[in-house]
Amino acid sequence: VMSILLHGDAAFAGQGVVYETFHLSDLPSYTTNGTIHVVVNNQIGFTTDPRMARSSPYPTDVARVVNAPIFHVNADDPEAVMYVCSVAAEWRNTFNKDVVVDLVCYRRRGHNEMDEPMFTQPLMYKQIHKQVPVLKKYADKLIADGTVTLQEFEEEIAKYDRICEEAYTRSKDKKILHIKHWLDSPWPGFFNADGEPKSMSCPPTGIPEELLTHIGTVASSVPVQDFKIHSGLSRILKARAEMTQNRLVDWALAEYMAFGSVLKEGIHVRLSGQDVERGTF
């Protein structure tokens, strides 16, 4: 399995989760053994200039925090893009480390239907309107080289248009949307036979009081003999033992009860997140 993440240039530089994920990329319990990051760098974030959105020359500079190789490639040159992507895949498979492909391109229209980019980016969009679209640019090159004929090119375009038109026509026959078809991994039992969610009633999850008492007792004791524990911690454990005896529960003990009951059923529990090893929360 090879993980590929697709980013926008403004998000790559501006979203903290990107930086955080890079720092997770080589940790033993979190690594994917290398992710390929593809940045669609259209040099604008909604309507924000790069110079107003980040302090570094390139949006991909954040990847330097883990010394990931970064390839900047002109997206108007499809063969260069293919070459760079092959090198990126080879890097990832050889070294099992992250790698970044920065596709330097442009956005022909606005951010969405409501955005008229000529209002906010007049100079940039005057330049963009002069650009020959990449498909025509590449087709002209291939025809000039004699790699394909004009007729072959037009047939390919017509074939693709036909696929789109037929799919659009077929889509009008669909009257029901099956939600589960759009999920990567529908939970078994979550939907009924025709794909609709079942009622959200929960099965009873209660456990016998003796088991709760047992978990509470274990959670408030120290398993090692003659082990000197911190006085502050012994106070917490003593208070927890008293709560268990008095049939009271606070938030922390409730979590212990939940984890403990699942463990008693032989289900492995892995805590993941901020400071779990120290039990800060």
UniProtKB/TrEMBL annotation:
The gene is Ogdhl. GO terms for cellular component: mitochondrion; oxoglutarate dehydrogenase complex. Keywords: Oxidoreductase, Thiamine pyrophosphate, Transit peptide. One of its GO terms (biological process) is tricarboxylic acid cycle. Its cofactor is thiamine diphosphate. One of its GO terms (molecular function) is thiamine pyrophosphate binding. InterPro entries: 2oxoglutarate_DH_E1, DH_E1, THDP-binding. SUPFAM superfamilies: Thiamin diphosphate-binding fold (THDP-binding). This is OGDHL protein. Pfam families: E1_dh. Belongs to the alpha-ketoglutarate dehydrogenase family. Gene3D superfamilies: 3.40.50.12470, 3.40.50.970. Residues 2-179 form the Dehydrogenase E1 component domain. It comes from the Eukaryota.
